[in-house]
Design a protein that fits this description.
With 186 residues, the chain is low in regular secondary structure. The protein has 1 helix and 2 strands, in the order αββ.
Length: 186
């Protein structure tokens, strides 16, 4: 015996519904694409007239003939091209912004390399304009505010260099001596 197939009445409704939704989507797309698109007026295009070329008269080139050189080997050198003056400097840019002495060196307590710093302090390394490294000086860490015995903040210098009175205990007190730089050195 073969199994019987019963027809389902849901199939035609599903196919019809899918066809109706697809047709509706196609109709909405066609309606959307057929609408006029508002356009803004573009500003008028102004074409500037190019300047007329300036006729320059080349200077005559004087070639001296050597007796040992055949006349066919003589070639005239091209006339020198006039060189325009460079434009005046309007302002500094690029590496010209970083001229010598734009960031003065800081003077403070020299921190020995083997000295262990307590929290809140840091070594500040710097170099001269000529690239000569200097000894590290003691500075307050940017995230640190020293406090007195009562928990009140202690005022610190604006440049964050530690004064001798606030140096950590046990650190030798030796101030950094800046070398004298030669102004003509590169």
């Amino acid at each position: 015996m073969t199994p019987s197939r019963e027809s389902s009445s849901a199939g035609p409704w599903l196919i019809g519904g899918a066809t109706a939704i697809t047709g509706l989507c196609v109709g909405l797309c066609l309606w959307w694409l057929s609408r006029p698109v508002p356009m803004e007026d573009l500003p008028p295009i102004v074409v500037a007239a190019s300047p007329a070329p300036v006729a320059r008269t080349p200077e005559p080139v004087r070639a001296r003939a050597r007796p040992s050189t055949p006349a066919a080997a003589l070639v005239e050198a091209p006339a020198p091209m006039p060189v325009d003056d460079p434009p005046p400097p309007e302002g500094k840019s690029g590496t010209a912004l970083y001229q010598r002495g734009t960031k003065p060196l800081k003077v403070g307590l020299v921190v020995p390399d083997d000295f262990e710093l307590p929290p809140g302090y840091m070594r500040h390394y710097q170099a001269t304009d000529n690239g000569q490294p200097l000894a590290a000086i003691l500075m307050f860490h940017p995230d640190f505010t020293p406090k007195d015995a009562n928990g009140q903040p202690i005022p610190i210098p604006e440049n964050r260099v530690v004064p001798e009175a606030l140096a950590p205990p046990g650190m030798p007190h030796r101030m950094l001596e800046l070398p004298v730089e030669d102004e003509d050195a590169p």
